[in-house]
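Repro case for the chain-ordering regression, as requested:
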Amino acid sequence: MKPIVELRSVVKEYPLGKLTVPAIRGVDLTINSGEFSTIAGPSGSGKTTLLNLVGCIDVATRGNVLVAGQDTGTLKEKELTKLRLFKIGFIFQSFNLVPVLTAFQNVEFPLLLQKTISKTERRQRTEELLEKVGLKDHIQHRPSELSGGQRQRVAIARALVTRPALILADEPTANLDSETGGSIIQLMKEINEQENTTFIFSTHDESVMRSATRLIRLVDGRIAA
Amino acid sequence: MILVRIALRNLFLHKFKTIIVGSILFLGTVLVIVGGGLLDAIDKGMERSLVNSVAAHIQLYNKDAKDDFKLFGNFDGSMPDVGHIKDFRKVKEVVQSVDNVAMVVPMGIDFGVTTVSNILERKLAELRNAYRKGDTKRMHVIKNHVRRIIKLLDRDLQNAAKIADIERYQKEHGDPSVALARTRKDAFWDNFEAKPLDTLEFLENEIGPLAMTEDIIWVRYIGTDTELFQKTFDRFEIVDGQMIPHGKRGFLFNKRIYEEMVKNKTARRLDKIKERLGEGKTIATCEDCQKWIRNNKNQVASLVYQLDETASKKVASALRGILHTKMTDLTELMKMFMTMDDEDFPARYELFYKVIAPNIMLYTVAIGDEFVLTAFARGGGYMRKVPMKVYGTFRFRSLDRSPLAGGFNVMDIITFRDLYGYMTKEKKKEQAAIRKDVGVKDVKPEDAEAMFEDDGDLVETKESDSFDPTKEVDLKTGGRRYTAEIHKQTYSKDELWQGVVINAAVMLKDGSKLKETMGIINKTLEKNKLRVNTMDWHTASGTIGQFIGVIRVVLYGAVFVIFVVAMIIINNSLLMSTMERTREIGTMRAIGAGRAFVRRIFLFETGVLALIFGGLGAVVGAILMLIMKSVGIPASSDFFYFVFAGPRLHPDLLPQHIVAAVAVITVVGFASTYYPARLATKISPREAMGNEE
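-- result from build under test --
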C-alpha cells in the first residue's frame, strides 16, 4: 500500500500575543491510500489543526507534511491551493455550501475552478454524484431549502466531484442527529469501499469511531498510544 | 459563468443595499450625461450669442497694452486700458491673408453720456429757435405752452422739492417763488416782444432748472465700420428706422436700451405692465406693476407739462370720457387715469397710446434726431462732445431680451475716433492751424492741473466762430453748422480703415479650428512685426465667457460628491459583505479557489451593479437628452435668453458624455471595490473549519 499522507515530527505552534501556543507537539503519522481513518480526541487536542496541516490549509512550524508525495512546507501559496483543488476534498462540520448557489452549482463549483473538463462532462459527473448521494430530486434546490443531512450530502458530492485521492472531513456529523449522522458515515464508507478513496475525519462521536478502520487518538497535540 | 451567477445572486439577495447603491450610480450617470450635454449646449449657445453678436472668434488688441482686453469691460463698468491699434488697415491686410479668416472688423468700445433736458428747457430752446427764424406764429404757440408750464410749476411748488433739486436751486438762485411770481405776470410776457433775448435768458437760467432735473443717459457704444459689422455679425438686424447709410457718420440705438432709457418713463412703465400681464400675471398680484402704477400716478406732471393748450383740452376731454367724471383739472384727471387696475388697464393703455402719446415726446431722442454724446477722450482726459444723428434702432436677433449681449449701441468708427481723441497727422496739422487761429495753447495733461491752480491763461481772449474739437463746446447751439456738415460727408473704406481702432474682431470661416488659426495669426502678425495680441472669444468676454467654466466646476463638483458618497457606500457595504461571507470565502479558498478568484467575485459584483444601474442611467440620460432636444428648454429669464442664444435650448446627445459616464462609473466601481476585495483575498481557508454556531 502506498502512503498518501506522511507526517514526520510535525510541530505546529500558534502565536498568541507574546506567547506561542503549541497545538501539535511532534506527530509522526502515515496514512495509506484507501484507509478510512478517524482522528479522535477531546476539544483542544489538536484535531482541527492536524486536519488543516494534512489539508494544506496550514503549514507546519517544524517537521514535514507530505501529501500525495509533495512536501507542503516547500510549496508556495498558489501551489498549495492547486494541491487542495486537485488532490483533496473537504467536508465541513457546518456543511459550508455557498448559499446563493443551487445544489447542482455547489457540486459543480470545484470543477469550474479546475477548468479541465468540458461542460457536458461536468454536468454528467455532477448529476451522477448527486444521484449517488440520493439528491436526484433536489438538484435545483438551494441549501436553505434542504435539511441538514441533505446539505451534508451535497457537501460530500462536492468533495467527491474532483475525484480526489484524499477526503478530509471535519466532524461531519456534529451538526446532525445520530440517525442522519449514521447514514452519512454509511455513505462515506460505501464510497471508500467502491472508489478506494482515502478518508480522514475528525470526530468525538463514538459510533463514528466504531465504523473507522483506523483510530488515531490525539491528546494534547500528541498521538496517544 | 459562475462569477456572474454569484454576483447576481448576491445582489439579488441584498436587494435593499443594491437598490440604494444602484440609485446613486444611476443618478450619477444621468447627471454626467444630462449635465454634460446641457453644458455643452449652453457653451455652444453662448458661443453663438457672443461670436455672432460682437465678440467674433478672435479679438485683436495692442500687445503692449497695460491691461488685458475685456469686451464687456471691468466689474465697475469701466473699460480696461488696452491702448489702441494704430493702423487698422495694415493689421486687417495681414490677418485677412490667413486662410481660415473670413472677416476682420474694426472696433472701439467705450462709454459716453448724453443728457436729456427737461421739458421747459426744451420748450425754451424751441422758442429761441423760432425767434431766430422769425416764426412769430410758432413763437406764440410755444410762449403759451411755456406760460402753462410756469403756471403748473407755481402751483406744484409745494411739490417742487420732489421734482427738482430745490435745495441746490435755493443756494444758487434764492427763493424760487419770487422768480415764478415774476414770470406769471402778464407784464413779464409783454416785455418779451421788446427784449426777447433777455426774457429768454431769465427763463432759461432761473426757471428752467425748476422744471424737473435733467436725465443722464449712459451710452455704451461700439464704433465700427457699420457696413462690415452688419455683414459679419448675422445676429445684427435693424428694428426701427434704417441702417446708417454707406460711408456716413451715424448712430444706431440698441432697441432694448432705446426702450429702457430713451422712451418716456410713463409709457415705458405701461409697456412693462402690459408685458407682465402677457406673461399671465395680474396687477393685483404683481408687486412691480403696483409700484409702476404708483410711479405713474406720482409723476403725471411730466406728462402734463408736455401738453400745450390744444393738446391739454383734447386729452382732458378724452380722460373725462373714459373716467366718467366732470372734473376739469388735467393733473387730477391724469392722476385718476393713471390709477389703473386689472379691469381697466387694457382700455386705458389703448387710450394712452391713441390720445396722449401723439402729443408728447414718446422718445426723448427720436429716430432721425440728433443728440450730443459726451465722452472722456482717452488721450488727455478731457471731455469731447460730438453730435450724433440717430438713424434707427437695432437688435441682436433672438438676443434682444438679454441685457448682456444687448448692452451695446453702434456708431461709425470716424465719430468713435473723434470721441476717442486720437489725432491723425492731418488732423493734428489742421488742429494746429485752428489753435493758432483761436489762440489755444497746447497743454499737456500733466500740466493742466497746475494751470487751473494759478489761473494761467489757457485761452487768449479772441473772438472767433471757428470750431475747436478739443474744447468743450456746447453743440446745442453753436455746433449746428458743424453738425450739418459732418453728417453730409461720406467716408471711403480707406478712411474708415486707415487709422486708430481699439480692437478688431476676427470672424473665422470654420470656428472649430479656432486654436490653430489663432496660432497662425499670431505667427503671421509676428512675421510682419505687428505688436498685436490675439484673444479667443471665451477669454475676451470675461466673466460672461467664463460663466460656463464656473457652472462646469459646480456640476463636476456635484458629480464628484455624488460619486464619493457612492464610493463610500459601496466600499462600506462590500466590507460588510466581506465580513458576512468570511466562512463562505474561506470555504471557497479551502476547496481550491485562488485569491484571484475571490477578488474577481467582488469585482464582478460591483461590475454587474455598475453595468445594470449605470447602463440604466445612461439610457435614461440619453432619453432625457433626446426629449429635451426635440422639445427644447424654455429660457425663463433674460439671462437664459443670452445663455441659450434664443428662447429655447435644444441640447444634443453627444457620445463623449456617455463614454465619460461609463468611464466615471468604472473608476468609481473599481476604486470602491479595491479595498474590500483585497481584504477578502486575505481570508484564510482556515475560516471554513470549525462550527458556525
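Ordering looks correct now. Residues 89 and 274 of chain B are 48 Å apart (CA to CA).
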